[in-house]
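Good morning,

Attaching, inline, the backbone tokens for the sequence recovery test we're adding to the shared suite. The designed sequence is right after.
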């Protein structure tokens, strides 16, 4: 059975895209070389889009991080430790797994806003 693709909600802080940047390789003018081949950077259009910054963490990772803080809170840590003991998992595996279960539930609650 194929593993279902995990919906992660897309990036929390998506990279910026600067559209229609003048091609610095062909200076936005000579978009074809002498042999008639288009500029490899802008495909002969003279302009291209620039992506600035890394893709960032997914919304799922962000939600799991927020859940992790709640699970590790002094007031809830006793219950978390007891629940981990019941499952036989290590506390770190239990907390990490539970944080992602909460994140998945949060993404599901968002409904049609998933990527």
């Amino acid at each position: 059975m194929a593993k279902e693709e995990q919906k992660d909600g897309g990036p929390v802080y998506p990279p910026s895209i600067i559209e229609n940047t003048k091609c610095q390789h062909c200076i936005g003018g000579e978009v074809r070389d002498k042999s008639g081949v288009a500029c490899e950077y802008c495909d002969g259009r003279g302009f291209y889009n620039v992506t600035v910054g890394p893709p960032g963490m997914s919304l799922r990772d962000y939600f799991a991080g927020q859940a992790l803080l709640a699970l590790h809170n002094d007031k809830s840590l006793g219950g978390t430790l007891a629940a981990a003991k019941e499952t036989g998992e290590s506390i770190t595996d239990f907390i990490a797994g539970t944080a992602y279960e909460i994140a998945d539930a949060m993404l599901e609650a968002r409904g049609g806003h998933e990527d």
